[in-house]
């Protein structure tokens, strides 16, 4: 029985990996939006809970960055993501 299961497994594996992949064609339409422009204008920043090792006044910190209050969306007090 084990030999039969082994032969079946090898046969199915060979069959699956031997399949031809079809070529998919696609068209780029006019609604395309480039996310990597020179100013990264299509991106937003999110700064989470600062760790206690970060020097940052006025924001509550936590040893466990999963607990606490995040600084928030588009609020980067140390300007880490300023390009």
Summarize the structure.
This protein has 83 residues and is mainly α. The chain has one helix spanning 2-17; strands at residues 46-47, 72-73.
Any overview of this molecule?
Helix content is 19%, strand content 5%. It is built from 1 helix and 2 strands. It has one helix at residues 2-17, and strands at 46-47, 72-73. It starts with a helix and ends in a 10-residue tail after the last strand. 2% of the residues are buried.
Task: Chart the SSEs and their pairings.
Layout: H1 2-17, E1 46-47, E2 72-73
Antiparallel strand pairs: 1-2
What is the chain-wise order of helices and strands?
HEE
Specify the biggest β-sheet: 2 strands, antiparallel
Q: What overall geometry do the principal axes of the alpha carbons give? A: flat
Strand content: under 5%
Structural class: mainly alpha
Find the count of extended strands (DSSP E, 2+ residues): 2
Q: Helix tally?
A: 1
Distance from first to last alpha carbon? 64 Å
């Amino acid at each position: 029985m084990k030999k039969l299961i082994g032969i079946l497994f090898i046969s199915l594996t060979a069959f699956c990996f031997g399949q031809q992949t079809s070529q998919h064609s696609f068209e780029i339409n006019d609604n395309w939006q480039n996310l990597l422009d020179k100013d990264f204008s299509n991106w937003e920043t999110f700064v989470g809970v600062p760790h206690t090792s970060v020097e940052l006044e006025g924001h509550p910190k936590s040893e466990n960055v999963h607990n606490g209050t995040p600084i928030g969306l588009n609020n980067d007090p140390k300007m880490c993501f300023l390009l």
